[in-house]
User: Which sequence fits this backbone?
């Protein structure tokens, strides 16, 4: 059974930092990509970042809105994927989800329809 569990959400001030974790079980990150999505109330779910498996050279991609501020990476055993979020902005407020797919196409990695497995999300709020 594939399970993805997000953690690390909370409240952070504008300009502050927060790290999210996605713990994966039942799926090998040697072969599966892990992506972070977010969804604000009344908004569509959008891709934030993705990291591919080692077999795909662990390539990463980011949404333009977070480039230079967010970093996605794996732990040493590749069972957990992190999203380090720096210089947080109020518009970053959303529920953040991690998702997994065997081989999402790099040019369309941020399409939700590609991903077979999803976590239940963790709330991130950026406010003074």
Assistant:
């Amino acid at each position: 059974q594939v399970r993805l569990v997000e953690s690390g959400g909370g409240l952070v001030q504008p300009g502050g930092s927060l790290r999210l974790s996605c713990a994966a079980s039942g799926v090998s990150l040697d072969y599966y990509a892990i992506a972070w999505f977010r969804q604000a109330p009344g908004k569509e779910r959008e891709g934030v970042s993705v990291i591919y498996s080692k077999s795909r050279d662990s390539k990463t991609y980011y949404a333009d809105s977070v480039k230079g501020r967010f970093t996605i990476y794996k732990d040493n055993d590749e069972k957990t994927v992190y999203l380090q979020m720096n210089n947080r902005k109020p518009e970053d407020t959303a529920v953040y989800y991690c998702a997994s797919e065997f081989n999402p196409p790099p040019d369309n990695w941020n399409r939700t329809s590609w991903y077979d497995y999803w976590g239940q999300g963790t709330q991130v709020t950026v406010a003074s």
The chain has a mean pLDDT of 95.
